[in-house]
Structures are given as structure tokens and as C-alpha cells.
Amino acid sequence: MTSNIPGRPKQINDIIETVERYDTEKIPLLHEYIDEQLANKVQYDSAANLAVLKLYQFNPDQINFKYISAILTKALTALPDPEFNLCLALLNLDICNDPTVSRLWELQKSLEQCRFKDFWVLLADEETKKIVSCCVGFEDSIREFISHTIENSFVTISKEEIGAYLNLSGNDLDEYSKGRNWVLNDNVYTLPVTKENEDKPKLVKENVKFELLTQIIGHANEI
């Protein structure tokens, strides 16, 4: 059986695609695979991570909060895909109320609601920083999501505002903006036009009464 997930080892695929996904003895292997994902900025395997949470759900004695936190942290990097919510759906109320899970949930809500400035304030907390530090490229992935959201919403935006959204300033913001082809003029960035942010012609619908329509047609016939 061949995996369709880039980077997924055959051994992991054999677990995910068979009844072995219900075998608690496979949990250590799945944990190792989570560690691999955390070390790789672009690798994310939703099915494998959800399988771990499902095993925890069926076997509460196997719950490992370190890996719950790791899975949720990695799920944040998959935004705008609904991975974080899919993970939450497999966690019971006690787990959701865990302080670490609650912190990650607050991060997710701030991003989902486009409260980007609030996100960086939350992330500035030392304990929260420590939680997400397990994930290589975490901030880069979040900035990618924020940038994509901004580009789909604005054609122009002030340098100050976009810097606050991305928590970047000075040379860091200048270099980042060049990489995304944002053009700066008088402290205002012009962003690439997309089908989401471009101006669309408004469709104006006019209702013409039947009596008026017959008069118009009659007048046209007289010409």
C-alpha cells in the first residue's frame, strides 16, 4: 500500500490504513512520527495525528498531554484548514480545560477571528512561547496564514498596520514584504491583485412595472 501523504513512512501508513490504528502498542511509533512532523516545517499529517487522539479517546490511560499539545500546535500551522477544530472534537472537556490546551485554543480563536494583534500579545507570554517552541517554523507558518488572509482582503494597507498584524518592523518587514511582492510607496503597501481582493462590478437590478414596459414597447413601435 502506497501513502499519498508526502513524507509519511510506509510503516506509519500501514498503521493508519489498517486495523492497526486501534492498537495501543503502535502509539510509540505514532509519537515518533509526530516528533518528525514538529521538526519539519512543511510536513503535516492530519490522519496520523487524529489517529493518535482517537487512540487516546478510546484508551484514556494512554493519554499523553505532551503529544496533545504538540498535535494542537502543529494543527495551528495548517490554518486556514480546520485541523485544530477537528482535533478539539476528539478531546473531552477535562482535556480542553487543561491550561496548555486552553492557551493554544486562545491562539486559535484569535487567528480564526482575524485578531492578529491579539495573537502576538498572547504569544508573547513566556509560557505560551515555551509550548509552541516544539514546532519548527511555527511563527513563519502563522505569518504565511496572516499574509494570505491580508492579501485576500486588501489591495492597499499601511506599513504600520501590516507590521502590527505580522509582528514585524524595520528591515525584517522590508525583507518579508519583498518576498511577497508587496510594493511600498509613502508608507503604504500595494498588494498583488487576486480574485478575492479585486474590485468587482456591482450588478444593479432594476424592476420595471409591466404597465411601463408596455408603454416603452409601444413607443418603440411608433418610431
Q: Overview of this structure, please?
A:
This protein is mainly α and 223 residues long. The chain has 2 domains: 1-135, ARM repeat, domain 1 (Serine Threonine Protein Phosphatase 5, Tetratricopeptide repeat, Alpha Horseshoe), CATH 1.25.40.250; 154-223, Arc Repressor Mutant, subunit A. Helix content is 57%, strand content 4%. It contains 13 helices and 3 strands. It has a 3-stranded antiparallel beta sheet. Helix 4 runs parallel beside helix 7 (99-112). The longest helix has 14 residues, at 99-112.
Short description:
The protein is mainly α and 223 residues long.
Keywords for this entry:
2 domains, about 220 residues, 3-stranded antiparallel beta sheet, 13 helices, Serine Threonine Protein Phosphatase 5, Tetratricopeptide repeat, Arc Repressor Mutant, subunit A, elongated
Q: Which sequence of strands runs across the widest sheet?
A: 1-3-2
Helix content range of the residues, please? Answer: 55-70%
Which regions contain 5 or more consecutive residues with pLDDT less than 50? none
Overall mean confidence score, pLDDT: 91
Strand content: under 5%
> H/E series, N to C?
HHHHHHHHHHEHHEEH
CATH superfamily assignment of the largest domain? Answer: ARM repeat, domain 1
Query: Roughly how many Å apart are the termini?
Result: 77 Å
Helix/strand/pairing class, anyone? mainly alpha
CATH topology category name of the largest domain: Serine Threonine Protein Phosphatase 5, Tetratricopeptide repeat
What is the CATH top level name of the largest domain? Mainly Alpha
Q: Give a count of the beta strands, DSSP E runs of length 2 or more.
A: 3
Q: What does the radius of gyration come to?
A: 25 Å
Number of domain modules = 2
